[in-house]
Specification:
The protein has about 375 residues and is α+β, with helices and mostly antiparallel strands. It has 8 helices and 24 strands. The chain folds into 2 domains: about 250 residues, Metallo-dependent phosphatases (Purple Acid Phosphatase, chain A, domain 2, 4-Layer Sandwich); about 110 residues, no CATH class. A hairpin with an 8-residue loop joins β10 and β11.
Length: about 375
């Protein structure tokens, strides 16, 4: 997997809308719904900023849909670390250790593109010893899919924008960078880089950046020209797929659309935002159980010392330690009539999303409304 980055240079014609989407992760229904929400047409330019596949139920279907769109629309499909994993295995540029391979299959099972390719090629993938035959059959029977995957660039650069899945340390000599680092650059924003162009990245769900507010909305650092747009689709119970609409001029306002697939209901009561909250995120989620309940359990977050109620179903043990899925005690501001996405509904409260932000609502919920599938906000300051 030791290679340098492949870079594609392009011009984005003025007058055409540009949509940037990252981290679809094999969720075809979210992808199609988001494009519908955005009013996607042949006149638009679509930039897919990596991780089209893996972890979701329809990786091969997403790949084929992107291939189909590429025949009739202007689409730039970039490679992410998950796409790259599949590509390197198919190219025989990387032979995984048996332990990794078995862990990979045990974790993702039929949600792996490799498994789905094997099924489509009539060859079930089960062990590392199956890889040579899988490669032969995919190249013979799924040649268009293989060619599309292996020809995806790592980076797209234009006069005003740089698109890369994980992140880069600079704007010049990109071809000299290690590809793997460009595609899997964890926790990119705190690394301190700044750019002349806008650098649009995915990979790291934006909710992981804020220690207080769990937001899946695109995060823009205007001073440094970085846009991070991974909404946690597939990976998070409250995740969403985001489409960032680039401004017509570099200094103009951004807008965005999102789709979270959650049911929605109308708020009947107002709720004020709480002044202080905690966002317990992946990698920082060890807790101490204080009192277990059937729906909610009182816990202490070990990193912050904060006590809060956590959904009991979100608790899990690993190596005899207790952790939780992403949790919060945030209370978003709500006005009567607001349509709220419902993550979990409990007798005395509901875990909801408003404008991409997750938190607890203690008011009454009225009638169900059509799923609050789309949200669009035009602003020059979608930022942290």
């Amino acid at each position: 997997m030791d290679r340098t980055a492949s870079v594609k240079k392009a011009e984005l014609p003025p007058g055409r809308r540009v949509l940037a989407i990252s981290d679809i992760h094999g969720n075809l229904s979210f992808f199609k719904a988001l494009l519908t929400a955005a009013g996607y047409t042949h006149e638009d330019i679509l930039v897919l900023v990596g991780d089209l596949v893996e972890k979701g139920p329809a990786s091969l279907a997403v790949l084929r849909y992107v291939m189909e769109l590429s025949q009739t629309h202007t689409v730039y499909a970039l490679r992410g670390n998950c796409d790259n994993l599949v590509t390197e295995l198919l190219r025989k540029e990387w032979e995984p250790a048996p332990q990794f391979f078995h862990h990979y299959l045990a974790t993702w099972k039929e949600h792996s593109l490799l498994v789905q390719l094997g099924q489509a090629a009539g060859f079930p993938l089960q062990t590392p010893e199956d890889l040579p035959e899988l490669r032969r059959r995919v190249r013979a029977r799924l040649a268009p899919e293989y060619e599309f995957l292996t020809q995806m660039p790592d980076i797209l650069i234009t006069p005003d924008y740089l698109f890369v899945h994980g992140g880069v340390p600079r704007e010049d000599h990109l071809e000299d960078l290690a590809a793997h680092r460009c595609l899997k650059n964890d926790n990119f924003l705190p690394q301190g880089y700044a750019f002349r162009r806008w650098c649009v990245v995915g990979h790291w769900p934006v909710t992981l950046y804020d220690p207080q507010i769990p937001s899946a909305a695109p995060l823009l650092e205007h001073d440094r020209h970085i846009a991070s747009i991974d909404g946690g689709c597939v990976l998070k119970a409250d995740g969403q797929l985001n489409a960032l609409v680039l401004p017509a001029a570099p200094a103009g306002p951004f807008s965005w659309y999102s789709y979270d697939g959650l049911p929605a209901a109308r708020a009947l009561d107002a709720q004020a935002e709480n002044a202080d909250s905690v966002n317990i995120r992946w990698g920082r989620s060890q807790v101490e159980l204080l009192e277990e309940g059937p729906l909610l359990s009182r816990c202490r977050h070990l990193e912050t010392g904060r006590e809060l109620d956590i959904l009991t179903e979100y608790l899990y043990t690993k190596e005899d330690l207790l952790f939780c899925e992403d949790s919060t005690d945030s209370r978003p501001p709500v006005e009567p009539g607001d349509a709220l996405s419902i993550v979990r509904r409990l007798p005395d409260r509901a875990l909801v999303k408003r404008n991409g932000v997750t938190g607890w609502y203690f008011g009454r919920l009225g009638e169900d409304v059509p799923p609050k599938t789309f949200f669009c906000e035009k602003s020059p300051g979608i930022s942290a």
